[in-house]
Amino acid sequence: MELQLQIKMNPKLYIRDPELSELGRNILKHSIEMIDALGFEEFTFKKLSIQVGTTEASIYRYFENKHRLLTYLITWYWTWLEYQMLFHTNNLTDSKRKIEIVISLLAFAETDKFILEHINKRKLHNILVSEGDKSYFTKHVEQDNEALLFKPFKDLCHRVAEIFLEYSPGYAYPHSLASTLVVTANHQLYFMQHLPRLTDFGTNGTQEQLIQYLQSFVFRSLA
């Protein structure tokens, strides 16, 4: 079963909503492809405008700068991931199974049920792993936080924390464990790809090995 999905984004992330026009959707589509291929440092609005077939000024009518665009994309991913989590766990009563599904989703190992033609979610996941921390490792993180730009990330971690408390009601650190789990999943994927000696998996590591590690880490903590 595949479902249509429309994600509502914080208006402070953009100047003009990119979902409301073909040009805006093309900006999202090509920015994902280019950041995945080039990296955030080499990505520019000038290069994006050539790829999209528009002017650089037109892109600035949608996003204040490329960091805002990156934050939009990362925030979009967290919101989509929470939808995925709700979809896969909504009818479950077994909290252990819920945690296993959450970990599988974080490792990008679950089937996507939602259709969005202009968003390549696998490439967006690559961006999350390699560039995601840059959305909040800034000098203006407090201002962005006050603008609620990171609310979807917080909401996701809170939902994971609630599942941890279902499994272990007396556990004292559910939110710390939830945020650590989310960040660790991304860091381990990045290390597997680029700095394999920082993992026990190496460059030939698999999603299943990562999932096993994350399960061991979470369940031992909750125990």
Question: What would a concise description of this structure say?
Answer:
The protein is an all-alpha fold and 223 residues long.
List keywords for this structure.
223 residues, mainly alpha, Tetracycline Repressor, domain 2, two-stranded parallel ribbon, 10 helices, 2% strand
Can you tell me about this structure?
The protein is an all-alpha fold and 223 residues long. The chain has one domain: Tetracycline Repressor, domain 2 (Orthogonal Bundle), CATH 1.10.357.10. It is 61% helix and 2% strand. It contains ten helices and two strands. It has a two-stranded parallel sheet with strand order 1-2. α1 packs across α2, α4 packs parallel to α8 and α9 runs antiparallel to α10. The longest helix is centred in the middle third of the chain and has 24 residues. The chain starts with a strand and ends with a helix. The relative contact order is 0.12. The mean pLDDT is 94.
CATH fold naming: Tetracycline Repressor, domain 2
Distance between the termini: 36 Å
* Uncertain residue segments: none
Task: Figure out the total of helices.
Answer: 10
- The name of the CATH superfamily reads Tetracycline Repressor, domain 2
Overall pLDDT level: 94
Topology:
Layout: E1 3-4, H1 22-38, H2 45-52, H3 56-60, H4 66-89, H5 95-106, E2 114-115, H6 121-131, H7 141-146, H8 151-167, H9 174-194, H10 207-222
Parallel strand pairs: 1-2
